[in-house]
Specification:
It is built from eight helices and nine strands. Bound molecules: adenosine-5'-diphosphate (ADP) and guanosine-5'-monophosphate.
Length: 200
């Protein structure tokens, strides 16, 4: 498909709902998609690669980036800071690539204030029990952290109504198919296509 300029898509949802799993599959299937790698002050989990999953940086470096206005948005989440470096997002969109931002709800609000054309997708679990099961099964957080993330999840779910789309991650394949359908539909809006008509 021909795009004049890429679009940006925010994907938010409770920790442990499966955002990374679903997005990983989506990115495997759509090589032209660009995943915005966030900066974070949190410690890497086992298997996480610096520069691929996150840019793992210290608080001083994070503060420096805030001062130089290098973030599109940033927020505090359960004791750590997370932010989206602006430059790479803009470069990818200028190249006609769609961009995925995996960010929590405060960051999503900041992006949409600055860039209202951004499409917001909320990913929800099939049930709270299943969310707790996935967080526990992932084995990366202490029981205390899991409880904090579950509390935060309840607050996050209350904001889901502000989003453009709501995807329930029951089966990964189906969630990926719904994300692809949403992205396709967003590119079929008249505003996206009218200038592509030959001879116009
Ligand atoms: P998030 O990025 O939202 O924090 P992850 O992608 O790390 O969540 O997934 C949390 C855990 O749930 C992982 O162990 C993952 O394998 C599992 N998981 C993700 N999606 C599903 C699904 N649809 N069904 C069952 N387990 C899933
Ligand atoms: P985790 O520690 O589980 O990787 O991420 C915790 C939360 O931070 C998730 O909800 C994730 O979407 C969010 N997050 C990741 N990167 C960013 C970012 O750059 N900005 C904001 N605001 N949230 C982020």
């Amino acid at each position: 498909m021909r795009f004049i300029k890429g679009k940006s898509f925010i994907v938010s949802g409770p920790s442990g709902v499966g955002k990374s799993t679903v997005l990983n599959e989506l990115l495997q299937r759509n090589k032209n998609l660009y995943f915005s790698v966030s900066a974070t002050t949190r410690e890497p989990r086992e298997g996480e690669v610096d520069g691929k999953h996150y840019h793992f940086i210290g608080s001083d470096v994070f503060r420096g980036m805030i001062e130089r206005d290098e973030f599109l948005e940033y927020a505090e989440y359960v004791g750590n800071f997370y932010g989206t470096p602006k430059r790479y997002v803009d470069e990818a969109m200028d190249q006609g690539r769609d961009v995925i931002l995996d960010i929590e709800v405060q960051g999503a609000t900041q992006v949409c204030t600055k860039r209202p054309e951004t499409v917001r997708i909320f990913i929800a679990p099939p049930s709270w029990e299943e969310l707790e099961r996935r967080l526990t099964a992932r084995g990366t957080d202490t029981p205390e952290k899991i409880q904090k993330r579950l509390l935060r999840a309840k607050v996050e779910l209350e904001t889901a109504d502000d989003y453009d789309y709501f995807v329930i991650n029951d089966a990964v394949e189906e969630a990926v198919a719904e994300l692809e359908a949403i992205m396709c539909a967003e590119h079929c809006r008249p505003s996206e296509r009218i200038d592509l008509i030959a001879g116009k």
